[in-house]
Design goal:
alpha+beta, 3 helices, three-stranded antiparallel beta sheet, 37% helix
Length: 163
């Protein structure tokens, strides 16, 4: 029963940030252990009910704390898949020269500077200022936006994170 409860709690965290998931699972496990101990020590010998109640309470508390961390850190979701946005049959126009950039102080030791660049939206280019960002877990290499020739078409590839 405890394994089913932990699976349901963990499944409810799918699509949330990594700290929310980790907090819910850890809180659920610790809550189940504490609840079982309290249930057995209360004299009723009902450790299973205590474990179930403790798992739910622990998962909610752990998930809430983890969710706060996800929001504070601005959790970024990434993929190894390239995100294509625009396909142009003829050769795309060259972007204007980049404006002068000012790199502000790094906000944390693990932040990575993403260079300012020209984004293309199908109608034309617009400038995207450079910025600091903490990479998604396990991702350290940022591939800048670029054009690729595929067959007779040109495809604009937005920037993305790679392992």
């Amino acid at each position: 029963m405890a394994a089913l409860l932990v699976a349901l709690i963990a499944g409810g965290c799918v699509g949330t940030g990594p700290n929310t998931q980790q907090g819910a699972v850890t809180g659920g496990v610790l809550g189940a252990i504490a609840g079982a101990m309290i249930g057995n020590n209360s004299g009723s010998g009902n450790g299973a009910s205590g474990a179930a109640i403790g798992a739910v309470a622990g998962a909610i508390a752990g998930g809430t704390l983890g969710n706060r961390v996800d929001h504070e850190r601005g959790t970024i979701y990434g993929s190894e898949q390239e995100a294509t946005t625009q396909v142009v049959v003829e050769e795309p126009p060259a972007p204007p020269p980049p404006p002068r950039q000012v790199v502000v102080q790094r906000p944390s030791h693990d932040a990575v500077w993403i260079e300012g660049h020209w984004e293309y939206d199908g109608r034309g280019y617009y400038w995207q200022e450079g910025y600091w960002v903490v990479p998604p877990p396990h991702y350290r290499h940022y591939v800048a936006p670029h054009w690729e020739r595929r067959g007779r078409a040109h495809v604009y590839i937005r920037g993305y994170w790679r392992l």
